[in-house]
């Protein structure tokens, strides 16, 4: 009877090991392979609870969802010998975990292989088009063809490539500097042209304004001369009429005007009785 508790403990321990080490769970976003002594079995396990032999078999899990991979930027040459920097990404998924494990082992290994394949196909197809076609008109067709070819090449690794896209297309730094230099020179040329045209228009406007000013001043001077002449003629006529009507009064009035214009404020003048101006008969 003293050995029974020890036996029960051993049995419980064995059962605990079998339960904890013999059963495994696969999440709904995963697939799994069972490795027996390092070799994968042919069965692929889906979501749920499964059993394996403890200590002899172990489980490898794979993500069953669509995975994203962003490639590093690389240069390529178009058919018109223009260098461009391609920044692309790919969307892919594991469709055959057994084949994937045998060929790639892990996701980082698959991404490294995918990077090489995508870049080689992109470089080959970009080399068949001009820079303008790659950037705008034929971009969608290039991406579709690259996706199909890369998917065919990666199918033997248990991988399906769903989409390959170019996120950004840039020029190499030395090309950017040359293009920016040409753009700056073109803008400076246009600026000089606009300044020259502006100065020409400014000179024309000033000349026209000066001409109009001269014409207006000449017309004003002519009108002033006419008015002044007419005023002088009218004054002479008035003087003549006054003289004819009262010559002595007219002479006396002229004498007063002469004195008024000759003598200013606080002026002193000494005249004798014989002075013609004081000897007027009035």
Question: What are the defining features of this structure?
Answer:
single chain; 282 residues; alpha+beta; Tetrahydropterin Synthase, Chain A; 3 domains; 4-stranded antiparallel beta sheet; 3-stranded antiparallel beta sheet; 7 helices; 22% strand; rod-shaped; transmembrane helix
Can you characterise this structure?
- Keywords: Membrane, Transmembrane, Transmembrane helix.
- HflC and HflK could regulate a protease.
- The protein is an alpha+beta fold and 282 residues long.
- The protein folds into three domains: 3-60, no CATH class; 64-170, Band 7 domain (Tetrahydropterin Synthase, Chain A, 2-Layer Sandwich); 178-215.
- It is 56% helix and 22% strand.
- The protein has seven helices and nine strands; from the N terminus they run H-E-E-E-E-E-E-E-E-H-H-H-H-E-H-H.
- It has helices at 4-22, 97-103, 107-126, 131-137, 139-154, 173-245, 247-262; strands spanning 23-26, 30-36, 39-45, 48-51, 57-63, 67-70, 74-77, 83-94, 159-170.
- Strands 6, 7, 8 and 9 form a four-stranded antiparallel beta sheet that branches.
- Strand 2 (30-36) and strand 3 form a beta hairpin.
- Helix 3 packs across helix 5 (139-154) and helix 6 packs across helix 7.
- The longest helix has 73 residues, at 173-245.
- It is rod-shaped.
- The chain starts with a helix and ends in a 20-residue tail after the last helix.
């Amino acid at each position: 009877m003293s050995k029974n508790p020890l036996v029960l403990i051993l049995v419980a321990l064995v059962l605990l090991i079998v339960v904890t080490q013999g059963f495994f769970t696969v999440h709904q976003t995963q697939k799994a392979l069972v490795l027996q002594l390092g070799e994968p079995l042919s069965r692929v396990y889906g979501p749920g609870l499964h059993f394996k032999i403890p200590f002899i078999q172990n489980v490898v899990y794979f993500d069953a969802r669509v995975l994203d991979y962003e490639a590093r930027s690389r240069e390529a040459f178009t058919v018109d010998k223009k260098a461009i920097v391609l920044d692309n990404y790919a969307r892919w998924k594991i469709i055959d975990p057994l084949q994937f494990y045998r060929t790639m082992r892990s996701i980082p290994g698959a991404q490294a292989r995918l990077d090489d394949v995508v870049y080689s196909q992109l470089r080959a197809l970009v080399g068949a088009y001009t820079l303008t076609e790659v950037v705008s008109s034929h971009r969608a067709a290039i991406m579709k063809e690259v996706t199909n070819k890369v998917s065919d090449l990666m199918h033997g690794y248990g991988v399906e490539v769903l989409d390959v896209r170019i996120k950004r297309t840039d020029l190499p730094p030395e090309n950017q500097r040359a293009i920016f230099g040409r753009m700056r020179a073109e803008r400076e040329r246009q600026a000089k042209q606009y300044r020259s045209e502006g100065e020409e228009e400014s000179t024309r406007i000033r000349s026209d304004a000066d001409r109009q000013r001269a014409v207006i001043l000449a017309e004003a001077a002519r009108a002033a001369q006419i008015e002044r002449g007419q005023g002088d003629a009218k004054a002479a006529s008035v003087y003549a009429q006054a003289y004819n009507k009262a010559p002595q009064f007219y002479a006396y009035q002229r004498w007063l005007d002469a004195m008024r214009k000759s003598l200013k404020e606080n002026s002193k003048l000494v005249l004798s009785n014989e002075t013609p101006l004081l000897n007027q008969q009035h």
